[in-house]
Amino acid sequence: MRLPLILLTPLALLACSDQPDASVAPAAEQTEPVLTPTPATSASGSATTGGDGSQIRLTALTAADRAAHPLEGELGCSFAAGEDVLLVAMGNVADEDGRAQGLAKIGDDLEPLVAQEAGGFDGLPDGAMFSGKGMTFTVTRSSDTPLAGGESPPYPAELLLQRADGAERTIVGLWTCGP
């Protein structure tokens, strides 16, 4: 097998050098193990990428969380991954100037959210973008075909989480709106 000249040049230079490569410490001198972080992933989403390397970890909302931070509005939507409801939103119907409110839980902290677009509940069923402290939550329906019938059918959707430091994570789930 012939190696291209561009690959042989660095090898030849290393072979001819009588100076040790300063970037490679001898095995006996390495005192700390080299750790390669592996991003946490869930079955329903991607790993966090970018930012400072810390994970974006949403936690399922509980009834106690919702009671501690009630949302105003006539109708609502929820984003769920499996059995876990990760985001809820409420708004008033035909409220052209109002913004829907939302709630998510990052780790153990409840995060109040506000829809970036006015329109109350009417701005929610097709997907919406919410702002919180240092993070944007964007729900996008991935199909116009509901997975079931009825008054409040679930739609396949993705929740894109974008942190102010550039970190991102996408979670696949269901977006359900109605009474």
List the helices and strands and how they pair.
Layout (H helix, E strand, L loop, with lengths): L4 H12 L46 H6 L6 E7 L2 E8 L9 E6 L2 E7 L11 E6 L2 E7 L12 E10 L4 E11 L1
In brief, what are we looking at here?
With 179 residues, the chain is mainly beta. It has helices spanning 5-16, 63-68, and strands at residues 75-81, 84-91, 101-106, 109-115, 127-132, 135-141, 154-163, 168-178.
The string of secondary-structure elements, in order, is HHEEEEEEEE
The tally of strands reads 8
Overall CATH architecture of one domain: Beta Barrel
Residue-averaged pLDDT: 80
- Briefly note the CATH topology name of one domain: Lipocalin
Given helix and strand content, the structural type is mainly beta
What is the straight-line distance between the termini? 69 Å
| CATH level-1 class of one domain | Mainly Beta
Radius of gyration: 24 Å
The biggest sheet amounts to: 8 strands, antiparallel, barrel
- Proportion of residues in extended strands: 25-35%
How much helical structure, as a percent, in the residues?
10-25%
